[in-house]
Structures are given as structure tokens and as C-alpha cells.
UniProtKB/TrEMBL annotation, chains A, B:
Transmembrane segments: none annotated. It comes from the Bacteria. It comes from Streptomyces alkaliterrae. Residues 31-50 bind DNA. One of its GO terms (molecular function) is DNA-binding transcription factor activity. This is TetR family transcriptional regulator. The keyword DNA-binding applies.
């Protein structure tokens, strides 16, 4: 083809050039000068978009973190906070799933370069902190609100990353949405909003449709039935 | 005092000198040369103990991580895995609690220097991974074993760090053990070993002593009773 193709924006051109070089000769062996030369731009252009070589490996996290913050800030008080942080985590999934090949290549790089792994872990921590900050406000009226917020945020991030990592390890084939949904529902079942949750007692309605009764095996049946009845609101 | 005091080992002398300088003039403004000069040793001695300036800020994590790995490797198959990872997390607490003033000073440094914060986050991730690896083996026979291991490890680390951070923010006063125990028991109540837990199906015996029944609110009472009966093993 000889016809001119539309040039990608400079930021994307830098990312493309960087990954081409990282994959061909290795991350450590690639300099910022190499990247700007291949992209056909000056050094200052690089630093206009990326503070360091590490940042070009994760070009979308900052935007995604901003999207997540905005998404959570737009929550209503009536929103289920657990569902909300799960949906917020799905924004990260979408970012990875939009560019499967790129995501898998980057996953390979982060396995090889300890500095990139550290960078990635610190990005994950920023997501976790963002979720926790939202939950802390939502759980402000609970005596264990902060602890609950921090542990729940960590659980959501761990579940999300578990499913995401499986998908990346499998080469980014297919749609990771279902696996992430399953992993997040595992967390939601522990932390369902209407449940009193750990330490809060399990008896009573867990949601509009579900009733949970926990009883000792030795409890006489008539007591169990009475508890079920009172949970169901029947007398 | 003019009598000669026993000299601390060189490694500790380097840590002491480093922190004296970090606190007096700032982390970024202190060079490795400054540290070795104050400690009265050569540059090569520094690098014998610490790969980088960052590592001198966290001199005990490597040992603690090794202790944790050893502690978990020494587990019996009969150990409650959830209790075991909570005990493993307490090794980290002990390391901080042994040197309250040092831990609080370091906490201040990690708030001020983003690079140290990143380093700390990557250390936390190593602890989490160590706990998760142990749990993955213990949960190997569960269909959701890996997910459960990863989420539980993240929960334990988040709860531990929540209580530890509170103690550090309060200036390291008093004994943080009780607060950490409370935070960990919050997690244990969610993830009690005999519970089928989230995703594992709630109907049926949760342990020898506890029966859990989950039913839709619209389920007729006779069906609920039948399910309770069959869970209890009565007919």
C-alpha cells in the first residue's frame, strides 16, 4: 500500500514504538532515545506524555484510575456499595480487554522485569485505595467501617486480579468478563450489603429474596422452624 | 561517658546512620556516601548488606519474609489454614512492634517519599503472595481453591495493615497486638475454616455444630422445613 494512512496520535505512536522495541530487544536494553527515534519524535515529546520509561508500559492506568474515581463519585446513596466497587473494578477489566494482544504482551514484560512488576503492584494499590476511600464513606456509620472498607476493597481487587491474571496467562483468548463476574460474585456473597456480615450475626434476611438461617446441629427442630418463620416474617 | 560501649554490628550501624541522616536532612538529600561516612565504613560494606538506598529503609523485611515462609512450611495438614495465615501475619506485626520508634520514623518517611511508598507496597505484595501460595496448597481440593486463597490472603494482609497503620499513625504508643487480633478475627469470622463460605454452596452442614439454610423468601414453609430436616440428617 502506498496511500498515506492516518497517523496515530503521538502518544499512541510512542507506546507502539516502545513495545516494538521492548519485545524485540528487551525492556532494559531499550532507551528512551531508541523509542523517540523509532516513533520519529523528539525526546521532549516523550516526556510530555510519560514521566519515565516505566510509565509508557502502563499508558492507560492513569485515565482508568480517573474514570474509577469519577464513577464512584457519581454514586448515589441508594447504590449498593459492594456492587458499586465491583462495577468500578470492571472498569479496569474493560481497559485490559479492549486490547488483548497489548495486555498479554505487557503481562509478559511485567513477569520479566522486576521494576515493572513493582510499578504494577503500586498501580494496583492505587485502585485498591480508591475503592477503599469510597467504601469508608459509605460505611462511616459502622463501628468497624474503616476496617470493613479496607478488607472489602482488598478482596475485590484480589478477586478481579485473580480472574484477569488467568485470562492473561491463557493468552487473552475469549472474553474474560464471565470469569471476572464469577470471581466478584464470590466476594459479593461474603459481603452482601444487607447481610450483617462477619461478626454481625447471620440469621435473618440476606436480601429481599433469600433467607439465611444458621443454627446449631443440636438445636431442636421446633426452634429451627420458629427461627425460619420469624426470618420469613410469618407467624 | 568515656568508657567504650559495645559497637553495634556493621549492618545496624549503617541503618542507624542512614535514619539519622534521613530524618535530619531528608531521604532524597542523603547519599550512600553520606551514610557510609557517618557509619565509618566503606561503600563496599554498604552494598554487602543492602542492594540500594531503599533497602536500608526496610532492613528487616527480607528476614521476616523468610521467617514467614519457614513458619508456613512447618505447618501441619491438621492446622486450620485461616488461623495459620493470621499467625503468619502476626510475624510482621512483631517486627514492627519490636522497634516502635524506628517503625514510626519509617512510616513518616514512606508518607513523604513516593519511591519508598512503592517499595513498601511491593513488600506487602510479597507477604500477600507468600500467604496465598500456602493457602493455594491447602485449598487445592476445592474447585474455587485458588480464588479463595488469593482473596483470603488479600483480606488478611488488608486487616493486618489496617490495624498496624492505626498504631503507626498514633505514634506507636502501646501494644498493637490487640487491635491486630481484632482485625484478624474480623477476617476469620468471614472465612472460618469449616464454613463452605461464599460460592461453595450454603445449604447443608457448615460444620459439625452449625447448619446453614438459604432459601428464597417465597419458598413455602413446608419446603423450608424439609430442607432443614435433610440438612440436619433427620427424616
Amino acid at each position: 500500500m502506498t496511500s498515506a494512512q492516518p497517523k496515530p496520535p503521538m502518544r499512541e505512536a510512542l507506546v507502539d514504538a516502545a513495545f516494538e522495541l521492548f519485545l524485540a530487544r528487551g525492556y532494559e536494553q531499550t532507551t528512551i532515545d531508541d523509542i523517540v527515534t523509532l516513533a520519529g519524535v523528539g525526546r521532549r515529546s516523550f516526556f510530555r506524555y510519560f514521566p519515565s520509561k516505566e510509565d509508557v508500559v502502563f499508558p492507560d492506568h492513569e485515565r482508568c484510575l480517573a474514570d474509577m474515581t469519577e464513577f464512584l463519585a457519581a454514586s448515589a446513596d441508594t447504590d449498593d456499595p459492594v456492587a458499586r466497587v465491583c462495577d468500578a473494578a470492571r472498569l479496569v477489566l474493560r481497559m485490559y480487554a479492549e486490547k488483548p494482544a497489548f495486555s498479554v504482551q505487557r503481562y509478559g514484560l511485567t513477569r520479566q522485569v522486576p521494576g515493572l512488576r513493582t510499578y504494577e503492584v503500586s498501580v494496583v494499590w492505587k485502585y485498591e485505595r480508591t475503592l477503599a476511600e469510597y467504601l469508608r464513606v459509605r460505611f462511616a456509620d459502622r463501628p468497624d467501617g474503616k476496617l470493613r472498607a479496607n478488607v472489602l476493597a482488598a478482596s475485590v481487587v484480589a478477586a478481579h486480579n485473580h480472574a484477569l491474571r488467568d485470562w492473561l496467562r491463557a493468552g487473552g483468548e475469549g472474553d474474560p468478563t464471565e470469569a471476572v463476574d464469577q470471581a466478584l460474585s464470590f466476594v459479593r456473597q461474603t459481603w452482601s450489603p444487607d447481610s450483617d456480615g462477619p461478626g454481625g450475626g447471620h440469621a435473618g434476611a440476606e436480601s429481599e429474596d433469600v433467607v439465611v438461617v444458621i443454627t446449631k446441629r443440636s438445636t431442636p427442630m421446633w426452634r429451627v422452624v420458629r427461627e425460619v418463620e420469624s426470618s420469613l416474617g410469618e407467624n
